[in-house]
Structure formats: C-alpha cells, structure tokens
Specification:
Elements (H helix, E strand, L loop, with lengths): L7 E7 L9 H9 L10 H25 L7 H18 L6 E6 L6 H10 L4 E6 L6 H17 L5 E4 L7 H17 L10 E7 L3 H7 L3 H16 L5 E6 L12 H10 L4 E6 L7 H17 L4 E4 L7 H18 L9 H9 L2
Parallel strand pairs: 1-2, 1-3, 3-4, 5-6, 5-7, 7-8
Helix pairs in contact: 1-2, 3-11, 6-8, 6-11
Length: 352
C-alpha cells in the first residue's frame, strides 16, 4: 500500500455476551433496552423499565445457560481470534499491518471503547466489518446506529467503508460448506451422506419488526441456504428453521422445535443442523442447539442428529472475511467514502 494511503483500521462489530454470571442481567438489560432489536410499547418512556423487567425475569434461566458454558460467553474470545487471524491474513496478502478493533453492542468492549482506541491510534480510514453475514436492522443496523451516534457525539469523521452483508459471497458460503462436508464425512449416520437431511437454522425475528422495516434478513437467509445446498450438496434434502424466539409475540418461522417434530412424524432419522446466521459458537449453538434441540430430536426418536461446526476461526472463514475486507480496501483507495444511510443500505441489500 502507498505511503500516502490514510492510516487504515478494521472495526469488527458483534453482539457480545456476558463475561460472568453476575453480568448476565446487565447484558440482558442492554439487549432489551435497544429499540432496534425489540421495540417495546411507548419505547421513549417504557423501553428501559420493561427491559429491566424482562431481564429480571430471564436472568436465572440465562445464568443457567451461561453456567453450562463455564460461566461466561465465549463470543469475545472467538471475535478476538477472528480479528487477529484477519489481520495476519491481510498482512500476508500485502496490505501491511492494519489495526483491528472490536465493538460489541451489548457488553464490553463497547463501541465507545473501540472508538477511543481508533482515535488514540490516529486511524483516518475505517473499514467497518459486521460479524453478521446477513443484514438486519436488529443486528448490523443496531451496531451501525450505535457507531454513528458515538462518532457524531465526539465529532469524529474518519473515512468510512461499510460492509453491510456478505451472505452471498462465494468464499463465505464455501466456508460453511467445508464444515457441512466435515460433519457428513465424520459424524455417525445410518444412511449415505448425500441422503442426510440438512437443516439450516437461524436466529428468528419478530414478525412485527419484519413487517415494519421490510427487513431483508429472511430472504438473505433463504438465499444462503438455497445456494449452499444447490451448489455443494445437490442430492441432500434441506430445509430452514428459526430459533431463539423470546416472549409470546409471533416470530419468524418455522420454529426449530416444530420442524424437528415434523421430521419425527416423517420418520427422518438423520439430520445435520447448520447454524448459518452465527459466525462463532455461543449460547445459541452450545446450549440451545447442543443441549436443547439435539436431545429433543433424540427424544423424538431422531437417533442421528448432529450439528456442523461453527465457523469460529476456521481458516476458510478467515479467508472469506479477508476477501470481503480486501474488496472494500480496494474500493476505498479510489476516494473518500461516507457513512451510508439506512435507506441506502436497504436499497443495496434489496438489489443483492
């Protein structure tokens, strides 16, 4: 890279997770206080009081889930590993020593801390890389909203290049396919690998939110699953389900437990679950899938139900992150960029 190139950094955005059992409740409070993820009635007045009530109600069960993982979420450790591996991969490709930063939305390190580091290091150009492959206002949108608030509050205006999604990027999909192939070749099945039922599972969203925002997330989930299945596993039956619903409001479906019940009724005995909306192991994979859905499948007499490994710091996934980042680095060199508005982001997603 030219010596005249602005000093460049890469900011990884993620949701975060509690680092101790004591911090489960404040993490949940931060989560439910965010109107971008769940908009509660009269949000300007009632959002925080209702968020506190929900966090209090869910604290004990959530603590039990995190206790099952050793007392904390592993998401920060995985994100740090991804950031370091990405930095090394880009350096190997000739992009020099690019600093990487992490901004978690609901627990430390928060966006403010990441911006402090960015200012301290004199970063002039920032590549913003959400660790959400699929665009949603509840994830990428919320994290970008927070980043914009922090930058504007501090009157900081670095050049920005935002990667809104990469659900359809060939190397991202190839990385998922590698993990599926690993499970098909190494897990215990009672049928040929190309007859195993593939079940792509993703985090659900409230239907009210999807209707209100026209969120492209469900369509992008479908496109990812469809493309991977048809490109890499054309003989395997496949389906999509949604997990992690909260409360009694209608959520995007079909639900994972409902799909497992359906497969049980159809005497399907070999299922591989693939968590495609998550890029690292955390409570949704290690507890919800491994400790809830797989035992549920066994109780439903689905005797061979396994989960494909998460992407974590898989070398193929790091190459995918490097590919999408490098593309933005090349575009950024053609001139200054601006923070896109949400309508601009949504238009870009709709045309993907």
């Amino acid at each position: 890279m030219s010596s005249t190139t602005p000093k460049t950094g890469i900011l990884l955005l993620n949701m975060g997770g509690p680092d101790s059992l004591e911090n489960v409740k404040p993490f949940l409070f931060n989560l439910f206080s965010d109107p971008d993820i769940i908009r509660l009635p009269f949000s300007n007045v009632l959002q925080k009081p209702l968020a506190n009530r929900i966090a209090t109600k869910r604290e004990k069960e959530a603590q039990e889930n995190y206790a099952a993982m050793g007392g904390a979420s592993p998401i920060l450790a995985y994100t740090q590993g991804q950031a370091e591996a990405l930095k090394a991969e880009l350096a190997q490709r000739g992009y020099g020593e690019l600093n990487t930063y992490i901004a978690m939305r609901y627990w430390h390190p928060f966006t403010e801390a990441a911006v402090d580091e960015i200012v301290r290091d004199g970063i002039e150009r920032l590549i913003v890389l959400p660790l959400y492959p699929h665009f949603s206002y509840t994830t990428t949108g919320s994290s970008l909203n927070e980043l914009k608030r922090v930058l504007e509050a501090r009157n900081i205006q670095p050049e920005l290049a935002v990667i809104p999604s990469y659900f359809d990027h060939p190397t991202y999909q190839a990385a998922i396919a590698d993990n599926i192939r690993y499970s098909l070749e190494n897990d215990c099945w009672t049928c040929p690998p190309d007859e195993v039922q593939l079940l792509f599972t993703a985090h659900s969203l409230p239907l009210k939110h999807i209707k209100r925002t026209q969120d492209p997330y469900p369509e992008q989930i479908y496109q990812t699953a469809h493309s991977i299945a048809k490109t890499y596993f054309p003989n395997n039956p496949w389906d999509i389900s949604y997990q992690s619903q909260v409360g009694k409001m209608p959520w995007l479906g079909p639900s994972t437990d409902g799909v497992l019940s359906y497969f049980s009724g159809k005497k399907v005995d070999n299922i591989l679950m693939i968590a495609i909306s998550f890029v690292s192991d955390h409570v949704e994979t290690l507890v919800e899938i491994d400790r809830l859905y797989i035992p549920m499948a066994n109780e439903l007499e689905i005797n061979h139900c396994h989960r494909a490994p998460a992407l974590n710091t898989n070398a193929a996934f790091i190459r995918a992150l490097a590919d999408v980042t490098a593309e933005q680095l090349e575009k950024a060199q053609s001139g200054p960029t601006q923070f896109p508005t949400f309508p601009e982001l949504l238009k870009a997603q709709a045309s993907s």
